[in-house]
Amino acid sequence: xxxxxxxxxxxxxxxxxxxxxxxxxxxxxxxxxxxxxxxxxxxxxxxxxxxxxxxxxxxxxxxxxxxxxxxxxxxxxxxxxxxxxxxxxxxxxxxxxxxxxxxxxxxxxxxxxxxxxxxxxxxxxxxxxxxxxxxxxxxxxxxxxxxxxxxxxxxxxxxxxxxxxxxxxxxxxxxxxxxxxxxxxxxx
Length: 188
Hints:
CATH topology of the largest domain: Glutaredoxin
Strand order of the largest sheet: 5-4-3-6-7
CATH superfamily of the largest domain: Glutaredoxin
Strand content: 15-25%
Order of helices and strands: HEEEHEHEHEEH
Oligomer: single chain
CATH architecture of the largest domain: 3-Layer(aba) Sandwich
């Protein structure tokens, strides 16, 4: 009887160990990023045509269409001042803009809805490279249109304004991001 009970315990422990080992293997086999391939041009959905409320030199928001940047790869970055990963990415976004300025346009879009959050985001955004347009989604229309569920949200538009990739992730210094942008920049 003791032998059967001992054997049963060994079998149960063996199954537990085997299953946990399989789960660990599956975790380590998953990719570390969710940056998709750009895919064929013909399969890319068009960009939304909602104008972005870009803050001009006069301090007021002006409606700007993404078509203004046709011929460049456009990187829409949805962020909020309370989002730590979003704020951590801002210096890297500036470096990316400086590195690829001829073929690439980053656009920073704050989704803070309360007045205090918008004020804090505006203070942070003032310190960002003036070559990066800043927009504020005051009424939530962009949040709704792009179905924002998590931040930071990155929407990459190809040179024709079609959505080539859309993902939530901290992406800089990841080879997949560089590969995606390089691929889109090479497309003519």
